[in-house]
Amino acid sequence: MIALGVILLIIGFLADIAILWTIGIILLVIGAALWILGAVGHAVGGRRHYW
Fold this sequence. Notes:
The protein has 51 residues and is mainly alpha-helical. It is built from two helices and no strands. The chain is elongated and about 45 Å long.
């Protein structure tokens, strides 16, 4: 999600498309939040067991 956010930010900046810029920022923020939650040990996505 973070990678997609960065790609959309770059495309939106180069093509001067504001909606891609906005979606890229949103995806980047959500991806970073989920990454931080996963790093501190919280279950992301409701997983209880790991194989």
